[in-house]
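USER:
I wish I could look at a protein chain and see how it folds. I am handing you a single protein, as its sequence and its fold in token form. As I understand it, each token names a local backbone shape. I hope you can help me see how the letters and the tokens relate. The protein I mean follows directly.
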Amino acid sequence: MYASSIWRAIKDRRSIHEYLPRDIPNGVLQKVLEATVWAPSAHNAQPWRFIVIKDPKVKETLAEAMAKEWDKDLREDRVPPEDRERLIEASIKRFTESPILIIACLTMDDMDTYQDERRQKAEYTMAVQSVATSVQNLLLRAHAEGLGTCWFCAPLFCPKKVKEVLRLPENVEPQALITLGYPSKKPEVPPRKSLKSVVYHNYWGCSG
């Protein structure tokens, strides 16, 4: 029964883009956040930090700041003005109308330090992977509580602006933004690659 419930959560979870205007009880939110600290991490350093945003003004300020930075990129990509406007408006609406925003962050404080660039780069990658496992825990526990989520990587494209808006300390780096709320609808199952196309036995290309 336990294994089947885990498998069901993995298969049933979806990325949600629209939420009901319904508050999330603090007890439920606490359960979702508690799941993050039980993720595996390199050296058990637990390099994740999470910022929970409920205040509408903060959500609006953050959404508009990120959108402004995105607009610069869209201009450089020569996206037509009408398309830029549509994309920017949709982005702001998506984040401001989400009941809760959660910013997943990384800190290297408790990770190992090396003098050479090669090992230090690997250490940083290990921290990134550790944060990702923590976010996955959050997504699955939220689903188990009847909540919906969507994992966005927007902060990676404008980390300085996110740090500025949220007044993050220098040693805390934003990695992802997760929307959280009660789903207004359940999306269809997205296509998945076959197991045979992604798993290789012993050597590359040996999928038999």
